[in-house]
Amino acid sequence: MSEQLLNEQDIEFQLYEVLDTEALLQRPQYQEHNREVFDATLDTARKVAEKYFAPMNQKGDTHEPTFDGEKVELIPETKAAWDAFAEAGFLAAQHSFEDGGMQLPEVVLRSSMAYFNAANIATTGYPFLSIGTANLIKSFASQSLQDQFLPPMMEGRFSGTMALTEPGQGSALADIKTVAEPTDAGHYLIKGSKMFISGGDHELTDNIVHMVLAKIKGAPTGVKGISLFVCPKFLLNEDGSIGERNDVSLAGLLHKMGYRNTTSTALNFGEKGGAIGYLVGEPHKGLQYMFQMMNEARIGVGLGAAALGYQGFNLSLSYARERPQGRLATNKDPQSKQVNIVEHADVRRMLLAQKAYSEGALSLCLFASSLFEDQHTAETEAERLRAATLLDLLTPMVKSWPSKYALKANELAIQVLGGSGYTREYPVEQYYRDNRLNPIHEGTEAIHGLDLLGRKVFMKQMAGYNLFRDEVMATLNEAKDLEQTRSLVKGLADAITTLNEVTTSLREQLNENLDRGLANATVYLDLFGRIVASWIWLRQAIAAATGLQSEHISEQKRNFYHGKLQAARYYIEWELPAIEPQAELLKGGNSVCFDMQDNWF
C-alpha cells in the first residue's frame, strides 16, 4: 500500500500552475534564488519527513509523553526528528541570508511544512511553534532580545511556545488573570497560570522561549490592557549561555485524543515570587503583536488539517485499488473474479469527496500563504495592501474550512477501509484523531464565525469583502473562455449573488439585535467557506484546463488534469448547493437555536 506523503505532482501544480511562484524570483528578496532552489528545498523537506518523521508517527501516538515530576520524557526519535529539521535549515528558512537564514518565500516554506505535517503532525508541532515564536520576536522585540534569542532559535538550540490560554478563561483573552509587575532591573515579574500550552515543556532543546500574554498592574481592562513578554524556561547569562531556571514550572501534562507526541501542558508562572519576563514592544499592545503569530498559526493549522486529510485520501485510494470485494450489479456470475472496491460507484464517491476536501484545502492554504508573502514583498504598497486586506477577510475560512472538511475526508477514509478503518493496524484512525483537534486549535469554528460576521466582513467599508467579490468575478470571466470550465461558472456566480443577499440581510439583523444577529454566525462561516472553496476549485480547474491545451503532455499528466476538473465539478455541483438551505435560515433570521433555553435541555 502506498506510503507517499501528499502528491509531488500536486505540490508542483499548486506552486507553478495555480500560483505563479516563479514570479517571486523577480522580487529583490529572492533574486539570488531560482526554481531549482525551490524544488530542492521541497525535495529536502520530503526526504527529511520520510526518514525522520513518518517512521515514528504511530510510536509517538502510542507512547505519549510522560512527566515524572522533574522531566518530560518523549520517545527518542522525537529529538532525532527535531535535529534533522534544524540541520536542514527549516527553522531559519524565512530569515535573511545576513541573519543566517535561507531567505525563502512563505509559500515555499509552507509547502515544505505540508510534508512534515503529512508525515507526523504531532512532532511537527515543535518546529511549527518555534518558527512562529522567532518571527514574533523578529517583528516586535527589541534588538537586545533579538540578539539573545533569535540565533539559538534559528539553530535549533531553543524552541518556542505561545502562552495565551488560561484555565478559567479559555479563548476569552480579555479576561486573562496573569499579571506582570515591573522591577527596577528593567524586567517584569510574571505570575499566573496558562493551560493547553503546546510544547510547553520537554527536553528537546536547551531552552524554551515562552511568549506570554499578561496584564501589567494598573493596565486598562479588557484586551486593551494585554502586554506581551518573552519568558524563557531558563534565564541567560551575559555571554548567552544557559543560566538558572526561571520561575516557570510544569503543573502537569494533558492527555489528548490526538497530536499526542506534542506535549500539551499546564504551566505555572511565579510560584516562587515571579517569573522573569521581558516586555515586547510597547505596553498594552500585546494582543496586537500576538495576532501575527496567531494568524500564521491559523494558516498553519489549516495546512496541517489539509495534510492529514490528504494522507487519509492517499491511503484509502491505495487500499481501494488493491482490495477486492464483490461484483458490479450487472455481473450475475458468482464464480467470476471479484472487483477491487474502487470499481464500486459509492467508493468512488467517497474518494472524490476526499479529493475535493483535501486538495481543495491544500490549495486554499497555499493561496493564503502567497497572500502572506505578497503583503510583505509585493512590488508596490497598493499590491501589499490588497493582499493584506484579502488575507484578513479569508483567514477565518482558511483556518476553519480545512479543519472541518479535511476531518470529514478522514472520516470517509475510515469508511472506505471498512472494518480495517477503525483498527490500529491502519493509520487512518490516527489521522482522524489527530485532525479532530484542528477545529479547536487556534480558535473554534464559532470564534471564527463571530470574527468573520461581527468584524471582518463589514470593516473598512467592506473593503475585504468587495475585494473578494472582484477576485471571484475575475476568475469567472477566465472560466467562461475555457470549454472545460464554462459549465461551472453559473453555480459559483449564483452563489455570489446568494452571499450578497445573505450578507445584506445579516447586516440589517445585526443593527436590530446584535446578539441575535450573531447567533448563526457559524452557519454563515460555513456558507462563506463553501463559496471560497468553490472559487479555489475553479482556479484549479482553469489551471488544469489550460494544462490540457499543451501539445506534449504525458498520459499520466493528462489523467492528473482530468482528475482536477472532475473534483472541481464534484465540489461545485455536489457541495456548493448546500448553501441554499443555509441561506434561507440566515436570511430569515431563524432563531430556533437562539431561543432555546438552558432549562429546556
Task: State the main characteristics.
5-stranded mixed beta barrel; 601 residues; alpha+beta
Low-confidence stretches: none
Average of the residue pLDDT scores = 96
Principal-axes geometry comes out as globular
Q: Would you list the SSEs in sequence order as H and E? A: HHHEEHHHEEEEEEEEEEHHHHHHHHHHHH
Describe, in plain words, how this protein is organized in 3D.
By secondary structure, the protein is of the alpha+beta class. Helix content is 56%, strand content 11%. The strands form three sheets. It has a five-stranded mixed barrel. A two-stranded antiparallel sheet has the order 1-2. α5 (106-140) crosses α8 (345-377) and α15 (521-548) runs antiparallel to α17 (579-587).
SSE topology:
Elements lengths: L7 H11 L16 H19 L3 H6 L3 E2 L4 E2 L3 H11 L18 H35 L2 H13 L2 E6 L15 E4 L5 E11 L8 E10 L9 E7 L1 E3 L5 E4 L2 E6 L10 E6 L5 E5 L6 H37 L22 H33 L3 H37 L10 H8 L9 H12 L2 H22 L8 H24 L1 H5 L2 H28 L6 H21 L3 H9 L4 H4 L6
Parallel strand pairs: 3-6, 4-6
Antiparallel strand pairs: 1-2, 4-5, 5-11, 5-12, 6-7, 7-12, 8-9, 10-11
Helix pairs in contact: 1-15, 2-4, 2-5, 4-5, 5-6, 5-7, 5-8, 7-8, 7-9, 7-10, 8-9, 8-15, 8-16, 9-10, 9-11, 9-12, 9-15, 11-15, 12-13, 12-15, 13-15, 13-17, 15-16, 15-17
